[in-house]
């Protein structure tokens, strides 16, 4: 069996998505050495992060030593984000970039970094759920290479947030903010790092340092899912706060609440606690890319650990306490075990105060009340 490599990468177009917030992803058709063709979806910020690391790995070919020696193609940094027009205008640039990548020497075009980036991820295989109010909108590249102005809609109105404390820049990809700075959020990553822009600056900022202007609560935080999703820890973490969970690398746990600040609530047997989402991965995924992200930035700090935080809101954020998570989780698991037992339910036996099925249990997980943290 020969070496794995990519024969060709073609940009098919882009999708406008609305979950967890409005954003754009580019669709690539990747043809592998065995002639198999796979469709993958990548955000522009992901592509740019890949490009920067590729230049670091091959400084000579990137022209860092001698600009005349550069063979790695150029890729413009994320510009002021102006919605669908920007997504469409980048298509020509990305097409030329991918063509140039495939024409590079094998040590670059077949390096693990490039191959890993274009491998199919579980999210690439996901279909929109029936519960989504707005389904993704797909815009394919015109066969003649010309733009279709009829497909262009109004620009995105970016969400505005305020910094509650000073955050220093710890890597080239981050952006420093000071207390009171107003930033626009371009992308909300599940890792808890958000790609923001402010005046002439742009970069990643921990979500925990930002608050909405109209409310202390994050409206897009999903509700708990006590059915749980199985994940594997790819990095050990020792709890610092009493409501966190210590886990070793390689442990299997269930995620029951995916919070946007990157600190998810996980369950191990009957115990729950906060754990950094950057240190988790669904089984079957290649951990190489996640490990590089951890090495580059690490997990964002929690809101409770930020010193000298100053909010403009009178009340604090509403959050369930770990006691509430544990109680609700235990009730859910007990109810699920009862439903799994063979034989009819007795007339006097309640089906559980959360509801008759798992959907009801999940839907009412937050309705049981919130505790402030």
TrEMBL record:
Major subcellular site: cytoplasm
GO molecular function: phosphatidylinositol binding; superoxide-generating NADPH oxidase activator activity
Location of region: Disordered: 281-304, 335-373
Top-level lineage group: Eukaryota
Xref: InterPro entries: NADPH_Oxidase/PX-Domain (IPR051228), NCF1_PBR/AIR (IPR032136), NCF1_SH3_2 (IPR035757), P47PHOX (IPR001655), PX_dom (IPR001683), PX_dom_sf (IPR036871), PX_p47phox (IPR034909), SH3-like_dom_sf (IPR036028)
Keywords of the record: Cytoplasm, Phosphoprotein, Repeat, SH3 domain
Annotated PX domain residues: 4-125
Composition bias type Polar residues, residue spans: 281-292
PROSITE patterns: PX, SH3
SUPFAM superfamilies: PX domain, SH3-domain
A GO cellular component annotation in the UniProt record: cytoplasm
GO biological process: reactive oxygen species biosynthetic process; respiratory burst; superoxide anion generation
Cellular compartments annotated: Cytoplasm
Residue ranges constituting the SH3 domain according to the UniProt record: 156-215, 226-285
Pfam families xref list: NCF1_PBR_AIR, PX, SH3_1
Role according to the record: Subunit of the phagocyte NADPH oxidase complex that mediates the transfer of electrons from cytosolic NADPH to O2 to produce the superoxide anion (O2(-)). In the activated complex, electrons are first transferred from NADPH to flavin adenine dinucleotide (FAD) and subsequently transferred via two heme molecules to molecular oxygen, producing superoxide through an outer-sphere reaction.
PANTHER family, per the entry: NEUTROPHIL CYTOSOL FACTOR 1-RELATED, SH3 MULTIPLE DOMAIN
Name by which UniProt lists this protein: Neutrophil cytosolic factor 1
The organism of origin for this protein: Ictidomys tridecemlineatus (Thirteen-lined ground squirrel)
């Amino acid at each position: 069996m020969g070496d794995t490599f990519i024969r060709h990468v073609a940009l098919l177009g882009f999708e406008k998505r609305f979950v967890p917030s409005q954003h754009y992803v580019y669709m690539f058709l990747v043809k592998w050495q065995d002639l198999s063709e796979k469709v993958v979806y990548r955000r522009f910020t992901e592509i740019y992060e890949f490009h920067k690391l590729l230049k670091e790995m091959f400084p000579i070919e990137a022209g860092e030593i001698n600009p005349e020696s550069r063979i790695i193609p150029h890729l413009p940094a994320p510009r002021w984000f102006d919605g669908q027009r920007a997504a469409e205008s980048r298509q020509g640039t990305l097409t030329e970039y991918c063509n140039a990548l495939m024409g590079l020497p094998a040590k670059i075009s077949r390096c693990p970094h490039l191959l890993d980036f274009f491998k199919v991820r579980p999210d690439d295989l996901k279909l929109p759920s029936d519960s989504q109010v707005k389904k993704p909108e797909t815009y394919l590249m015109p066969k003649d290479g010309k733009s279709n102005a009829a497909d262009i809609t109004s620009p995105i109105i970016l969400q505005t947030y305020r910094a509650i404390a000073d955050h220093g820049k710890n890597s080239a990809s981050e952006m420093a903010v000071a207390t009171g700075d107003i930033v626009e959020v371009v992308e909300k990553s599940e890792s808890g790092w958000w790609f923001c822009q402010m005046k002439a600056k742009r970069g990643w900022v921990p979500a925990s340092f930002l608050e909405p202007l109209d409310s202390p609560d994050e409206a897009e935080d999903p509700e708990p899912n006590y059915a749980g999703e199985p994940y594997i820890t790819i990095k050990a973490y020792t709890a610092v706060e009493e409501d966190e969970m210590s886990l070793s690398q390689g442990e299997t746990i269930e995620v029951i609440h995916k919070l946007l600040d990157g600190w998810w609530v996980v369950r191990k047997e009957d115990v729950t606690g906060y754990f950094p989402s950057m240190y988790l991965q669904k089984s079957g995924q290649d951990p190489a890319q996640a490990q590089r992200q951890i090495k580059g930035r690490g997990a964002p700090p929690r809101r409770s650990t930020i010193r000298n935080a100053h909010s403009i809101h009178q009340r604090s954020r509403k959050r369930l306490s770990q006691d509430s998570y544990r109680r609700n989780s235990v009730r859910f698991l007990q109810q699920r075990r009862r439903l799994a037992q063979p034989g009819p339910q007795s007339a006097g036996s309640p089906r559980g105060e959360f509801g008759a099925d798992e959907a009801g249990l999940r839907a009412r997980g937050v309705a049981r009340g919130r505790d402030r943290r």
